[in-house]
Write a structure and sequence with these properties.
CATH topology of the largest domain: OB fold (Dihydrolipoamide Acetyltransferase, E2P)
Strand order of the largest sheet: 4-3-2-5-6
Structural class: alpha+beta
Distance between the termini: 55 Å
Largest sheet: 5 strands, antiparallel
Number of domains: 3
CATH class of the largest domain: Mainly Beta
Order of helices and strands: HHHHHHHEEEEHEEE
Amino acid sequence: MATELPNWVRLQKALSVEAEKGFTDLMGNQYRFSEFLCLSFGETYHILTVHEQRRWATIARDFASYPQMTPQQRQHLVAEARRFLQELQQAIESRLAGEVSQPSQFKSPRTTPLIASKNEETATNRRVTLDQPLAELKAVGVRKSRHLERLGLHQVRDILFYYPRDHIDYANQVNISNLVVGETVTIMGTVKRCNCFTSPRNKKLTILEVILKDSTGQIKLNRFFAGTRYSNRGWQYQQKSRYASGAVVAASGLVKKNKYGVTLENPELEVLDQPGASIESMKIGRVLPVYPLTEGVPA
């Protein structure tokens, strides 16, 4: 059966509630979450391009397997579905408005690779073996290897089996209006206003205040810098210049709610050249591993 347009609000609401409740495959009035999403993505929409129809059908099949997935797999699928719906809604609304739409214009900004290219790897790591001491690696050296030894890491082989205890998912990119308290997310918007100042109550505390907006809403983000060196007017002016009005910024963090509304806790910020530009940060827009802290070993 072909219907006109997807129910964007209902689909995003279902995905948001599932994420908020911990990816438990909630039972609704008629269907479980996974059944509702499988049926919804099973609908046919003639307005979709061939490529969009393929992705739409793939997500339907993925949600059919949702009950058998691990919590991490469920979280990844929900985040992927939310991103796809946002991109698709923007693309369709643009087409309906008569604008020329290229798929690449509506893609979320991509992170740059953290791994060297194949040619670079060959040149730099040609002689690395699994049994090689970490101290012999150019990127590690003797000094860093001593810290790693406290973690039980002596050889290259040990690194491969040193697994994180958890992950922080900053790859979940959402619109400001779709932020859910408790989720770790990445948002992208333009700077509406920025201020950087020394706290009147604590001369050793500097506050960076950035108000971001996108097509769905706006949010106030704060970063706090402890130390008298940040109270320097030149440094504060530099921050205000970096986050000037109209600058495109990607921000990642844990969604929290305070007396002023929804915000991101101690967000990571990166100024982009333009909407959709690659994200260079090693944190923003990525899935970050979390390792146990060990006394005497820097994080």
